[in-house]
Amino acid sequence: MNDADFIAGQQLILGFYQAVDEARFSDAAKAFSDHGEWHRKGEVLTGPAEVEAAYFGRATDLHTRHVITNFLLSDSAEGQDFSVYITLYAGKAAEGETPSVSGPSMVLTSHGSLIQQEGVWKFAHKSTQRQFLIQPQQG
């Protein structure tokens, strides 16, 4: 894998989560290839339209930040394979307000593959699993 492909793969993954955090769900969905699959919360979403539809009706007062670490990208027969860790912070707040959280909500992993579609890297397959659910502090 050359440096340009590594950076493009990394930017795709980071850009996807930033778009989700900024409630730009159409932009997040565009990160998927036409037939790209996302295995998420027991569902399989296929293609950009289904990915975007998964966010319809999301509470507008829910704010998230996905902290992405432990990047692994490697060459595969069809493009690149990836693996990342995700620490998710989530909280509710009215528009213009800052949510108050006691810590992260959960830790997830995401694995999958990237392909080039019309010269642009896209998700071909993405699987996200919850690894830890963090209990809220009492009191």
Describe this structure in words.
This protein has 139 residues and is α+β, with helices and mostly antiparallel strands. It contains three helices and six strands; from the N terminus they run ααββαββββ. The protein has a six-stranded mixed sheet, covered by helices on one side. The N and C termini lie far apart (50 Å).
How do the helices and strands line up, and which of them pair or pack?
Elements: H1 3-21, H2 25-29, E1 32-40, E2 43-46, H3 47-53, E3 62-75, E4 80-92, E5 106-117, E6 120-133
Parallel strand pairs: 1-6
Antiparallel strand pairs: 1-2, 3-4, 4-5, 5-6
Structural class category: alpha+beta
Order of strands, widest sheet: 2-1-6-5-4-3
Strand content: over 45%
Global outline: globular
Give me the strand/helix succession.
HHEEHEEEE
Unreliable segments (pLDDT under 50, ≥5 consecutive)?
Answer: none
Average of the residue pLDDT scores = 96
Q: Please give the radius of gyration in angstroms.
A: 16 Å
* Percent in helix: 10-25%
The main β sheet shows up as: 6 strands, mixed
Number of helices: 3
How many strand elements? 6
